Structure prediction request, 605 residues.
Amino acid sequence: MPPAQRGGCLCALGFLWLFAVVEAKTRTYYLGIVEENWDYAPSGKNLITGQNLLEDKFASVYATRGANRIGRVYKKAIFRQFTDDTYSQEIPKAAWLGFLGPVLKAEEEDVIIVHLKNFASRPYSVHPHGVFYDKDSEGALYPDGTGGKSKEDDFVVPGGNYTYTWPVRKDYSPTLADSNCLTWIYHSHIDTPRDIASGLIGPLLVCKKGTADETSIEGTGAANAFALMFSIVDENFSWYLDENINTFCLEPASVDKEDEGFLTSNRMHAINGYIYGNLPGLEMCADTSMSWHLFGMGSEIDIHAAYFYGHTFTNRDQRADVIGLFPATFITAEMNPGNPGRWLITCQVNEHLRGGMEALYDVQICQKNLSRPSPLSHKRRYYIAAEEVLWNYGPDGYDKFTGQGLNATGSESAIYFTQGTNRIGGQYWKVRYVEYTDATFSKKKIWSEDMKHLGILGPIIKAEVGDTILVTFANKAKRSYSIMAHGVSFSKLSEGAPYLDATDAVKDTNSGLVGPLLVCRKNTLNQDGTQKGIDREFYLLFSIFDENDSWYLRKNIEAFTGDPSKVDENDADFKESNKMHVESCQSAYGWHPMPLEHMLKPQSH
Prediction:
């Protein structure tokens, strides 16, 4: 054969081989809907603190079974995967999926076929996000004008089955700028809020060609992808609420389903259906690229800030360690976990953190020669102390926008600044991060005029990529505190986070311990730490300081109320008076605008 012809054959064979690699597949799944009892915390413990759930002030609200309380175990409906249409052999799923259904995966131009069998006691369906479907495979019950076969998909009766076909078209697939696999979900869609609250939801990944099978997300052991649902699972909306009351409440007849305490006890602040660190199996190898497939579901209270301790990730080409999740938002975050150890995942919303929306993930050393970063060049030293201070949210005594006194009768600010028999007013004992010049902690660093807008915030910690930040921390307060950082790498010895120690992140921050940290590109900071090419820098905290959740609440009551014995700490009006809304660029100056006048002055260059 002439060389030219041989080359032509080789090229043709190469083309055929490439085509075979990316050839579209039909991916078939046999899903069964089964009813079973689900335990949100099977260990019976808060595995973050080691405390028994029934002895934990906050966890006991959700875990206690009693006369008119269900406890931590609920009947649910769950998607399970089987090997074939006999539904006789279940395919085990990864433990970390919790009550989520199995992971469905497909690539561009694949076709997903789902054979659904309903073993439950009421009708359900399966409806996908992120893939194409015809009306006969929508799996959603609503008045869409269809009938006959196009209506059969809407619900599957108990004992029935139906086959859904979902093509993965190009216009549903990841773009060049997307991650390899996009995060979507599937769920029952007869009465969506009730179906999902009952447990019928699972992850669906739509991937670029040639990448789906590289995503190790099923099975046991170390994986390179995980799917996490952050949701306050409201069991009050479950189809099985009455059955759960009759099964688990010790005196079912005493239950008032409208009682606020009962309603609260059934709102499980869960990650994949587990609370207080009970989510198992989040194990990965250090120095292995992996992805987190994150989604939020629920109602207006499901506003979540998912924080991964010890590592950062990228999402849409931006680096972060916290990501916002809302109902029906689907995120793919990519991480290269290079920091071995056991680390926390939490929702940073205070109420959700207290409610148990937290888990642990293990970064394991899977190879002998784990790569370590090269020694960092420049060390930036900070000497920071925690000090108790008397803080006034409105030191001038009047609202600079209206001219009214902050405690003027009828003013919007009066509720927060009126001091009286059972009201604290606008002045509180707090704790702050304060910077010193050296390790003797004898001389405080003086703030320039440009820094005074920081208010109660701690000093600005700055570094460039490649630097090492060295913080010497002195606790000058009367109780235990720590200091931890977002957005930088640290070992377990420098984490400063509460696992089994005496600190409390919610109380610590409400008490005042928070400050800014800036991570800059290489060669963008001047010798004095200012940013090159930037005339002014402003650091603004938008928050409600809840003084009811401060370590110093009792001290403030004793110091500032007219008659501490008459203070009811649980009174709703008292609680509201202590929620200081530091907003509109006020950085803990409350109704007193922080000193930003200098930002309007002409600048010399």
Q: What stands out?
A: The radius of gyration is 28 Å. The chain has two domains: 26-364, 379-600. Confidence is low (pLDDT under 50) at residues 1-20, 498-502, 583-589, 596-605.
